[in-house]
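quick q for whoever's on today - can somebody do inverse folding on this one?? i tried earlier but teh output was garbage lol. tokens:
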């Protein structure tokens, strides 16, 4: 009765030890964020993966789709995520039993001296009495299969799998972060390019007015009604407009190349054509109360939390290295001198546990544990720094959205005044009360006001893009 109880007790002890897991368990940190970001004029919103559709621009939607499919930075991030998943699978496989097959052949020789002389009689290879001793050559054939499984007594393999899973989560968040950055950069570049297209149209209109003004100035100068200095000033204004237009063309071409690369194309491949009309830069609704949970889902915060999780799990791996490892091994093989002898009687078997206990490692294990704890503290600091950076970015983006909206409203009011002045100037010119130069001047100011409003609306749209990026989508 006692002999039967001891094995059961030993098995129960092994099973209970196999449920142990060394190291601290991970608990998600509490992000130090304000409860809400308040003070904006619209209703609460949540993160959306296709936030750029709020601009209502089919061309932008198509560019975003191309970028999500062909952007090289995003493709590289997806490959890194795939590698992390493969690594997780490899770590999980390391905890499974292994089965290996072996087969071999060797041509051996037993000499006449040393241990070989003792083995010869056992193998039936000893020389006959009175015969001089000499070496013996023979063949050895072997065939077998071996198995091995490490019992995870201290949770070392479980912690390794946990860390690998956290690395996959970090890789997924990093991929989401790259996708968000690419989407925001495509939207920003596209909007800026549309803005430059509008600037080119305004520049062409301003240059046409400058040509008219210069023609009138030259005519008046020929009649002695305007000085050469005034004509020279008009010529200088026209030359400045031409130089500005050249710079606009350069900037437009540079942005077009940047946009082509972002969507996975060649730099010299045009992805959009200048619009026939001025862009509206529709501005989507802005959230009035942004809960902190929204910011906590930012890809960089999710990634930092996952990195902290992985670092915490690796502490358990380092602690488990201090404790013994038990491997269960088994071997079943055949060894024969002649293939004709291969049979059941040639079998060899070996089954049993093997224990490995670290006794002295020169302090390596303790240093490894100290390193893992240091990495965990560094990951915690990196997480807090990421949260604070997110807080600042969201505050800045919210302030920029509010300021841009106010500036766009002021620019619209100024344009209305400029148009009213132009209308009055045109009416007075028709009655003969003022000269054509006054009308041209009013038209120039109106074009400048239209350009200013376009820039303000562009700034408001770009602020919306930055807000979505700061919120994580």
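ok took a stab at it. sequence:
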């Amino acid at each position: 009765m006692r002999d039967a109880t001891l094995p059961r007790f030993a098995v129960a002890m092994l099973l209970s030890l196999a449920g142990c897991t060394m190291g601290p368990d991970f608990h998600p940190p509490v992000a130090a964020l304000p409860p809400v970001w308040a003070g904006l004029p619209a209703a609460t919103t949540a993160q959306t993966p296709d936030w750029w559709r709020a601009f209502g621009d089919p061309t932008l939607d198509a560019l975003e789709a191309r970028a999500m499919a062909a952007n090289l930075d995003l493709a590289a991030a997806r490959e890194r995520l795939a590698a992390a998943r493969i690594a997780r699978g490899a770590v999980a496989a390391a905890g499974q039993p292994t089965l290996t097959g072996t087969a071999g052949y060797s041509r051996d020789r037993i000499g006449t001296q040393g241990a070989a002389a003792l083995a010869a009689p056992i193998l039936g290879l000893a020389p006959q009495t009175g015969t001089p001793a000499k070496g013996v050559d023979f063949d050895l054939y072997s065939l077998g299969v071996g198995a091995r499984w490490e019992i995870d007594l201290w949770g070392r393999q479980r912690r390794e799998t946990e860390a690998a899973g956290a690395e996959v989560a970090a890789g997924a968040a990093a991929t989401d972060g790259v996708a968000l950055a690419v989407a925001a950069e495509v939207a920003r570049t596209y909007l800026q390019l549309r803005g430059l297209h509008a600037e080119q149209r305004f520049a062409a209109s301003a240059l046409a007015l400058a040509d008219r003004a210069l023609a009138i100035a030259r005519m008046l100068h020929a009649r002695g009604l305007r000085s050469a200095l005034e004509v020279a000033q008009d010529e200088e204004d026209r030359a400045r407009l031409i130089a500005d237009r050249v710079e606009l063309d350069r900037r437009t071409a540079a942005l077009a190349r940047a946009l082509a690369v972002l969507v996975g194309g060649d730099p010299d491949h045009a992805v959009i054509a200048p619009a026939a009309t001025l862009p509206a830069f529709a501005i989507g609704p802005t959230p009035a109360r942004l809960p902190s949970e929204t910011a906590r889902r930012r890809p960089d915060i999710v990634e930092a939390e996952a990195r902290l999780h992985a670092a915490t799990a690796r502490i358990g791996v380092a602690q488990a290295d201090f404790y013994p490892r038990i491997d269960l091994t088994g071997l079943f093989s055949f060894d024969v001198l002649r293939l004709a002898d291969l049979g059941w009687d040639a079998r060899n078997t070996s089954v049993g546990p093997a224990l490995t206990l670290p006794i002295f490692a020169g302090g390596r294990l303790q240093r490894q544990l100290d390193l893992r704890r240091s990495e965990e503290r560094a990951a915690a600091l990196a997480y807090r720094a990421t949260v604070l950076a997110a807080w600042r970015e969201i505050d800045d983006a919210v302030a920029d959205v509010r300021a841009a909206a106010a500036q766009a409203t002021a620019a619209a009011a100024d344009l209305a005044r400029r148009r009213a002045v132009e209308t009055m100037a045109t009416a007075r010119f028709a009655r003969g009360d003022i000269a054509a130069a006054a009308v041209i001047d009013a038209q120039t100011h109106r074009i400048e006001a239209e350009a200013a409003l376009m820039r303000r609306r562009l700034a408001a749209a770009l602020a919306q893009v930055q807000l979505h990026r700061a919120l994580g989508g």
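fwiw The chain has ten helices and six strands. also The longest strand covers residues 136-151. so keep that in mind when u check it
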